[in-house]
Amino acid sequence: MDSLKQLQRQYVQFVKSLYRERIVDRQFVEMQKMQKDDPDFLSGIANNFFDMWESVSHKIDIAIEQKIVDPELYDAVHRVKGAGMSLGVKKVITLCLDFQEHYNTRNHEGCLQCLPQIKDDYQSVKDKLQMVFGLQQQIIGAGGSIPILG
């Protein structure tokens, strides 16, 4: 029982640290609350985000390599932003907004500077979310429930 409480404390501390570090925002905390009825809810939303990334990451890689900024790339970044907003991954959203601002002002160099940052932050967020979901699975596996943050 002590190990379960320790896992739950570790989970709460980790999610709070993501919020404090502005990696996630209030939307993430709200989505986390919805897990009360479905423990897989948040991981399902995250998996949709990860799948969406796989569908657009090639376009971003090509843009970085060939230094091409076009409407197709804008659409790809817009999709990343939209999926990120549904999950509440603040850092990725902010970088996508920066990209869109550069695009709208025809600052192609600014767009190209944002792309590697978007990729890096996406990977960082993915790694951290996988840690969250790993902790959730450990808690459930130990017979506990996932703590809901307020």
Tell me, briefly, the overall form.
elongated
End-to-end Cα distance, whole Å, is: 23 Å
- The proportion of residues in beta strands is under 5%
> What oligomeric state best describes the polypeptide chains here?
single chain
Major sheet characteristics: none
Q: Order of helices and strands, N to C?
A: HHHHHH
How would you state the average pLDDT, rounded? 93
Provide a count of the helices.
Answer: 6
What portion of residues is helical?
over 70%
What is the C-alpha radius of gyration, as a whole number of Å? Answer: 17 Å
| Total count of strands | 0
Low-confidence segments, given as residue ranges, are: none
Provide the structure class.
Answer: mainly alpha
Modified residues (Phosphohistidine): 78
Pfam families: Hpt (PF01627)
Subcellular location: Cytoplasm, Cytosol; Nucleus
Function: Functions as a two-component phosphorelay mediators between cytokinin sensor histidine kinases and response regulators (B-type ARRs). Plays an important role in propagating cytokinin signal transduction.
Protein model, in words:
This protein is mostly helical and 150 residues long. It is built from six helices and no strands. It has helices spanning 2-20, 26-33, 41-66, 71-87, 90-104, 108-141. Helix 3 packs antiparallel against helix 6 and helix 4 (71-87) packs antiparallel against helix 5 (90-104). The chain starts with a helix and ends in a 9-residue tail after the last helix. Keywords: Cytokinin signaling pathway, Phosphoprotein, Two-component regulatory system.
